[in-house]
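Figure 2 data, in text form.
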Amino acid sequence: MLSRKLLNNSIEYLKQQGFENPDVGIVLGTGLGQLVNQIEDQKVAHYNNIPSFPLATVEFHTGKLIYGDLGGKKVVVMQGRFHLYEGYDFMDITYPIRVMHGLGIKNLLISNAAGAVNLDMKKGDLMQLDDHINLQGGSPLALKNIAEFGDRFTDMSAPYDQDMNETLKSLAQKHDITLHKGVYASVVGPQLETRAEYRMLKILGADAVGMSTVPEVIVANHLKLPVCAVSVLTDECDPENLQPISVPEIIEIAGKAEPKLVQLFKGLIESL
């Protein structure tokens, strides 16, 4: 069960490690770790040392919080996130968002790797999340004591912050970066989708599909924390010409596209 005591233990430990008054929280997705190289005066806390923190089990998620200076702001970066497909529950997945909020972040930036359901979008492109579809079969707010932490019935009519999205759009135009706008569908995984499932996602109105992000965005809205999210599109999900997925290829494509994401996030942070 989510409790103030657990949260306070985690927050106090991080403050003792020098994680003082961060302005921006950042969640890095699969294959998206280069941003940390831009952070100055780093302080690092490994998940296994933070009281009550879950542990990352996916081999390409490293499992640490990094604090420092980026774009003239204090940031705390989550390098390694948690997923339903690892056996975690929604409270575990979103616990770090509540911890970062407790440390004092005012804005949350999220990245992920996703498959392009909209075939006008190509491998290596970026997509700004304008809306989402929760297909994970649950909610991080479905807790008996959730009212202790905010409104139980959280409004989701505009889950992504319009001001940050507009800034990202302007930055993309300035730097000649392709930045689509679309709807992200979040599924459980870890298996990839069948041809029929990709057809279903398209009918539902999804432009991209992945296995993360939505629970974190729901909790950000619960906390009234402005949030934006960008997907790196690592494969094209054409049900009429579906090829087997290669995880190493996904990681490679994410790595090649990441400098564009870093440029956008750094510019956005500078503007906040």
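Caption note: The mean pLDDT is 93.
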